[in-house]
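Student: Send me a single protein entry containing the residue sequence and its fold in token form, directly below this note:

Tutor:
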Amino acid sequence: MSVQVLSIKDGHAATAGSVGLPSADLSCLFSRQALERFEPGEAIFWEGDEATHIFEVEDGMLRALRLLGDGRRIIVGFLRTGDLLGVSLKERYLYTVEAISPVQLRRFPRRRFEDEVARDPRLQEQLFSKLRDEMTAAQDQAVLLSRRSAEEKLANFLLLMKERGNSEHRAIVDLPMTRLDIANYLGMTIETVSRTITKPANGGIIAAAGRRSIKVLKMEPLRLLAEGDEGEHWMPPLARPGRYASANA
């Protein structure tokens, strides 16, 4: 039986067997690298640092952010297990990346990464897919920011986090980030986020499922809210006390 052994040594890939080889995988480039751990709030790299490494997230969630001249921060995306950091291949990192939860990741030297990808079309295709995902995430945020109301933005954000989540329960949306993170990502204030999230909670659309997660109770009303439909068919005449008001502060 033919097998392929892919190892990284002095920047070269070594293979054994030439028949029936499985597809090369970008993860193979990272699998032999040391596992590094970061605590919540720790920076993996800073905007403007020389882009010397590419990182693969083994576990946890991170935020990518940019600092404005007046000191404000804009969160440009959230990264999770399986994502690559720094794949834009610029000379310097375009943003700062910080851990939100305890994070485990592996780093690979950028120049060696480029060499490995350049010699294998299969890796080029996978890298292109990663870059496409990065572009899609940027487009998703642009769509979120273009929404007219805070309710639309928040509902779309919850649907997006649910779609990209890793929860085994399909109705659970993991939100390890703080409300301030959500506010910075959506271009809102933290007060607006806190006030807005009570509306679908009072309407019985979502409920707290833990300090850092929610459960979607009614998917269709949440989708309608995301589309800007705020009719009476989804909000009861008498709103119940918010079940999510104290969660995820």
Q: What stands out?
A: Helices lie at 26-31, 110-118, 121-146, 150-164, 179-186, 190-202, 219-226.
